[in-house]
Amino acid sequence: MAFATDILADAQTEIDNSENGVKYIGSDIIYRILEEREEWVEKRTKELEEESREVVVYPGRIRFLPDHTFRASKPAVIGVRVLAGRIHVGQHLLKEGTRIGRIKSIRSGQDSMKEALQGSEVAVAIDGVTVGRQLDENDIMLVDIPASHAKKLRKMDLSAAEEEVLEELIEIHRKDDHFWGR
């Protein structure tokens, strides 16, 4: 930040070429500098929150809808309702505390999706399961999250449903590892 001064051409070049998000704020009016700084801080905070939300695996709970088996295996393709949180392609699923498979894809009609949010009814392809063996209609499954993500999630702003699923996951994992997610 600079008040009533000009920036050197070399410094401006360095700022323009910087990959660290450096921003120059300068003016002859001090209030304008402060306002611009506040706007930049708000914008950067939102960007960082969005980045962290993308990287972290969020908790989620889904139900296998009755009469919605589209393929029994390799991969199993079934219709589900997202009861809480969200599901994302690549996430592992737990059924009654046991890891059963991984979400290969999510579709709604003809559209492929990266994620589905609470309240959505979508078709998911799940690697590693066979309907009728590891999975039956009306089964409830949870998105399995890594222990390091549980720690991050506790500090983040989650919905009540996501909090509930997170607590359930912590309870499941702490049966085997007392310090899981700490």
Describe the structure concisely.
The protein has helices spanning 9-17, 30-55, 147-155, 160-173; strands at residues 2-3, 26-27, 60-71, 76-88, 92-95, 98-108, 111-113, 115-117, 121-127, 140-144.
What is the number of beta strands?
10
Biggest pleated-sheet summary: 6 strands, antiparallel, barrel
Tell me, briefly, the overall form: elongated
N-to-C series of helices and strands: EHEHEEEEEEEEHH
CATH class of the largest domain: Mainly Beta
CATH architecture of the largest domain: Beta Barrel
Average of the residue pLDDT scores: 88
Q: What is the CATH H-level superfamily of the largest domain?
A: Translation factors
Query: What is the number of helices?
Result: 4
Structural class: alpha+beta
Spatial sequence of strands, sheet with the most strands: 3-4-9-6-5-10
Any idea what the radius of gyration is? 23 Å
CATH topology name of the largest domain: Elongation Factor Tu (Ef-tu), domain 3
Residue share in helix: 25-40%
Q: Give the termini separation.
A: 39 Å
How many domains? The number is 2
Note poorly predicted spans: none
Percentage beta strand: 25-35%
List keywords for this structure.
elongated; 182 residues; alpha+beta; 4 helices; 34% strand; two-stranded parallel sheet; six-stranded antiparallel β-barrel; Elongation Factor Tu (Ef-tu), domain 3
Describe, in plain words, how this protein is organized in 3D.
Strand 5 and strand 6 form a beta hairpin. The longest helix is centred in the N-terminal third of the chain and has 26 residues, at 30-55. This protein is 32% helix and 34% strand. With 182 residues, it is an alpha+beta fold. It has a 6-stranded antiparallel beta barrel with strand order 3-4-9-6-5-10. A two-stranded parallel sheet has the order 1-2. It has 4 helices and 10 strands. The protein folds into 2 domains: 2-55, no CATH class; 60-173, Elongation Factor Tu (Ef-tu), domain 3 (Beta Barrel), CATH 2.40.30. It has helices at 9-17, 30-55, 147-155, 160-173, and strands at 2-3, 26-27, 60-71, 76-88, 92-95, 98-108, 111-113, 115-117, 121-127, 140-144.
